[in-house]
From TrEMBL:
Involved in the regulation of homocysteine metabolism. Its cofactor is Zn(2+). Zn(2+) binds at residues 211, 293-294. The keyword Glycosyltransferase does not apply. This is Betaine-homocysteine methyltransferase. GO terms for molecular function: betaine-homocysteine S-methyltransferase activity; zinc ion binding. It comes from Tetraodon nigroviridis.
């Protein structure tokens, strides 16, 4: 096991260590009743800090080495977008997020990562300076709270991600950058390899992808990024934090195009055994920062840590309540369940949905709009009934 808890993210990665990330906070807390789907903003850090703290602790027990601050969509322009009204400012939410993450990180072998993500201002074609000012306001909190490193995550456009990296790197702290893209590239068609090159040149030491696609699709995308960086003669570390949902039918927009998004995705959830395959695939691809995003629960992260235990040299604390490959079932009262206490059973399993009329794939909503399209111009006012009617009518025509 690693010696010296003070080592930072780059020291760990430079030493060849595997860093396990945490999971998807907005989805997990929405299901628990602390986040509203739609805005997806993280005011729970102030309204229900006990819920955020507990989720951090569960991911830590599961083996996560990174406590990412619950600051997703916590920029002021997002907090007040489309009629969303919260009692707290972005600064208050982000400061509370940093305190909660640090409190739990100190309970184990974890680092605190301050995160920023894409902004409504960018989609509304605001200037580079206006968008960078939004990142700077968030960054001031991360500097004040002295997070261990910074993550620019969930960017659909590499241009905005580059702007974020350029702001974050001014602190001198390590910077990771992850795009929510698939193998086809960003929303303006920039390839994964070119995206990665631009991020590294902007100052990111760790590059990769998060969200929008399933684990195997994300690993494939990071492979393309790695190829691009190496072809350009550059060096970087690589990260991947995918969805916990199967998304073979997604197009370049990812799972938000799926008709099941966000309230009907449960039939797509990956099992813990799927996560073992993902962890091994990511490791074999040379990725050493391996975590999760939307849909990931602590047991998923535990599966990553258990699969990579031979390389890491230890199991997470949470494995005390989980027998290796179902070994705990040896104690079950029913003999046919005891017969499942073996690896080959779970590796060969093809889970059924239990839904007789459920299709195996869906038809995504391919609206094809992105930054620069009038339909993506954001507003402070709540979406009007007339605006909704236009959207409903358009949706019926697809």
């Amino acid at each position: 096991q690693r010696v010296g808890k003070a080592q930072g993210i780059l020291e760990r990665l430079n030493a060849g260590e595997i860093v396990i990330g945490d999971g998807g906070f907005v989805f997990a807390l929405e299901k628990r009743g602390y986040v509203k789907a739609g805005p997806w903003t993280p005011e729970a850090t102030k309204e229900h800090p006990e819920a955020v703290r507990q989720l951090h602790r569960e991911f830590l027990r599961a083996g996560a080495n990174v406590m990412q601050t619950f600051t997703f969509y916590a920029s002021d322009d997002k907090l007040e977008n489309r009629g969303n009204k919260v009692t707290y400012t972005g600064v208050q939410i982000n400061e509370a997020a940093c305190d909660l993450a640090r409190e739990v990180a100190n309970e184990g072998d974890a680092l605190v990562a301050g995160g920023v993500c894409q902004t409504p201002s960018y989609l509304s074609c605001k200037s580079e300076k206006e968008v960078k000012d939004i990142f700077k306001r968030q960054l001031d909190v991360f500097v004040k709270k002295n997070v261990d490193f910074l993550i620019a995550e969930y960017f659909e456009h590499v241009e905005e991600a580059v702007w974020a990296v350029e702001v974050l790197k001014t602190t001198g702290k390590p910077v990771a950058a992850s795009l929510c893209i698939g193998p086809k590239g960003d929303m303006h068609g920039v390839s994964p390899g070119e995206c990665a090159v631009r991020l590294v040149k902007a100052g990111a030491q760790i590059v990769g992808v998060n969200c929008h696609f399933d684990p195997m699709t994300c690993v494939e995308t990071v492979k393309l990024m790695k190829e691009g960086v190496e072809k350009a003669g550059l060096k970087a570390h690589y990260m991947v934090q995918p969805l916990a949902f199967h998304t073979p039918d997604c197009n370049c927009q990812g799972f938000i195009d799926l008709p099941e998004f966000p309230f009907g995705l449960e039939p797509r959830i990956l099992t813990r055994w799927d996560m073992h395959k993902y962890a091994r695939e990511a490791y074999n691809a040379g990725i050493r920062f391996i975590g999760g995003c939307c849909g990931f629960e602590p047991y998923h992260i535990r599966a990553l840590a258990e699969e990579l235990a031979p390389e890491r040299g230890f199991l997470p604390v949470g494995s005390d309540k989980h027998g290796n490959w179902g070994a705990g079932l040896e104690m079950h009262t029913k003999p046919w369940v005891r017969a499942r206490a073996r690896r080959d059973y779970w590796e060969a399993l093809k889970p059924a949905s239990g839904r007789p009329l459920c299709p195996s794939l869906s038809t995504p909503d391919c609206w094809g709009v992105t930054k620069g399209d009038t339909e993506l111009m954001q507003q402070k006012e709540a979406t009007s009934k007339e605006q909704l009617k236009q959207l409903f009518d358009r949706s019926k025509s697809h």
